[in-house]
Amino acid sequence: MVKILRITGLLISGWWFSIQAEPSSLTVYTEHFPPYNFQQHDNIVGINTELVQAMCQKTAIDCQFVLYPWRRAYENAQRDSYGALFSTSRMPQREADFQWVGPLMYSTAYLYRLRSRQEVNPQNLEDAKQFVIGVAHGDVYEIYLKSIGFDYGTNLVGFVAKADSIGPFLQHKVDLIIGSPRVIQVWLQRYGKESSEVEPVIEFDMLGLNYLAVNLDVEPELVDQLQQALDELKSSGEAERIVQQYMKDFSYPH
After folding, report:
1. Start and end of every Solute-binding protein family 3/N-terminal domain (predicted)?
2. Residues 9, 56: contact at Cβ < 8 Å?
């Protein structure tokens, strides 16, 4: 299912004002990746969704938000001359494919095991090849792990969305999953589990942070305006307020 959300106004001090001039427009693609971006009932929401919405509002850009599986979202953002994509890891292999706005909100990622499975004990990524890791198709971690010798059918299992690996992980069908303390907390909530039931074993500190990746055909001036808006939202404390509000009130989408 595809969900489209159109942002058509500008929010200033709690009041909506209409945009008189015809605004620039973007189609902003994303995936199911709670709590950063996901569909809840009839809306596309999340920490970085709300942040990008605020960036569009501050720059008077008419933004349509569309949710797809990651690989399809990524391909559409590359094909759509007025497309953008988030939350996107900025890495050398992708640098020339987009213009970049960010970083958005993020937290450090790790390989996690169940605390009850002490036999799953890799000390480094070479050791981790002995175990099965859940990854999302087309995701930055899939790309990276395959580049260093991991392979489907041996030590990788693929899923449509990152959070889809949690069920098999809890059933011991997947030994290790990739996430950050923030996302692991909310993914486990879906199954009535606590973050204390898992523990990190290896830090992923070699991959890029979350960004808004903008199609190369979009005017650089527009990209600069989005970056300025993001910087202002961070410096004002609004970006951190969004994070704290989501983590306080989060309920896993069904």
Report:
1. 25-249
2. no
